[in-house]
Design goal:
Radius of gyration: 23 Å
Number of helices: 10
Structural class: alpha+beta
Protein name: Putative membrane-bound metal-dependent hydrolase
Keywords: Hydrolase, Membrane, Transmembrane, Transmembrane helix
Mean pLDDT: 95
Order of helices and strands: HHHHHHHEEEEHHEEHEEE
Number of domains: 2
Largest sheet: 9 strands, antiparallel
Helix content: 40-55%
Low-confidence stretches: none
InterPro entries: Transcription_regulator (IPR053170), YdjM-like (IPR007404)
GO molecular function: hydrolase activity
Shape: globular
Organism: Desulfovibrio ferrophilus
């Protein structure tokens, strides 16, 4: 989830709890606790390490326990109103809320790090959800303007942030149940069908259709009035043998293979007889109406391109890291 949403959750908690602590420093505690796991964005991780460790140890159960202890000690030193047990419980609760708001997206969160690298995702909320964020911010502003009911409104805001993903997951389930009939009406056969979040979910949802070595991505609306025939973008599934071989030549490919959820590949032959193989994780590709109309859907984040020589050895590769294409040379 984006940092603004996490900060909004901390602001709501600060509005609820600052009178209980007797100091407005409670806002600082709550906002910092709600945001803190994302500190891994600011520790200078390389692009490959970012794939490995973002939403890693700082987003794990062990990690948030350690962060809660650090916050407890820090704020107790700042102001004696922050009694250790109360401060620890508040900090841990908001750190856990951060994990919840991340787990409900499709990015994947390593809850059991450092003991396991398994990435958990519930796929109920898009990584940027204006319905969630703007509602939370609106309730926070309302809570500030209402002296009589401010704490109740803040409680409502926190409850909304907890329950909103449950509601959107239910919508996703309804869309998924309708997909076999919708695809049949569009003449599409499938071995498996997955519904995932997309821009403006829970209104629009991404449809991932797998059929042999093909993977199709389309968009469907949860609102019947917005239904239309589904337009699909077609991809070829990534060759696991090729990815494995490239991973032996450059560790980045092994890391990317571990990270990707729906790995695809596109091969481009070059005039010199070599070829470029672009690996794309369909999790980050959007084929919805908003993306197709207003965004450059050819620029997909976390895309990794192998440049192969005429003898099929890896000579160099390129990686799209947060919109910046980084080139790497390979020394054989």
């Amino acid at each position: 989830m984006d940092p603004i949403t996490h900060i909004a959750s901390g602001a709501l908690a600060g509005r609820l709890l600052h009178s209980r602590f007797g100091t407005r420093l409670a806002y600082a505690l709550c906002i910092l606790a709600a945001w803190l796991p994302d500190i891994d964005n600011f520790v200078g991780l390389s692009p490959e390490d970012y794939l490995l460790h973002h939403r890693g140890i700082t987003h794990s159960l062990v990690g948030i326990s350690a962060q809660a202890l650090i916050l407890t000690a820090l704020f107790w030193l700042l102001h004696k109103a922050f009694k250790p047990m109360k401060t620890f419980i508040v900090s841990l609760s908001l750190l856990a809320l951060h994990l919840w708001l991340d787990v409900v997206t499709t990015y994947g969160t390593q809850l059991m790090a450092p003991f396991s690298k398994v990435r958990y995702d519930w796929g109920a909320v898009f990584i940027i959800d204006p319905f969630l964020t703007l509602t939370a911010l609106g309730l926070f502003v309302w809570s500030l303007r209402s002296r009589e009911h401010g704490r109740r409104i803040a409680t409502l805001g926190l409850a909304f942030m907890l329950l909103y993903p449950v509601a959107t997951h239910s919508v996703r389930g309804l869309v998924e149940d309708s997909m076999p009939q919708v695809l049949a009406e569009n003449g599409i056969q499938a071995e498996s069908i997955t519904v995932s979040t997309d821009l403006l979910s829970p209104i629009f949802w991404k449809i991932i259709v797998e059929d042999g070595d093909r993977l199709r991505i389309g968009s469907v609306s949860a609102i019947p009035a917005l239904h239309s025939s589904i337009e699909f973008a077609e991809f070829t599934k990534a060759d696991p043998t090729l990815l494995s071989r490239l991973g032996q030549e450059a560790s980045f490919f092994a890391t990317w293979d571990w990270f990707a959820k729906w790995p695809t590949m596109k091969i481009t032959l070059r005039p010199d007889g070599g070829r470029d193989v672009e690996f794309l994780d369909a999790r980050f590709y959007s084929h919805g109406p908003i993306a197709r109309r207003y965004m450059d859907i050819s620029q997909v984040p976390f895309t990794l391109t192998a440049v192969l020589g005429t003898d099929e050895t890896l000579t160099r590769f390129r990686y799209n890291h947060h919109g910046q294409v980084i080139a790497y040379a390979v020394t054989n």
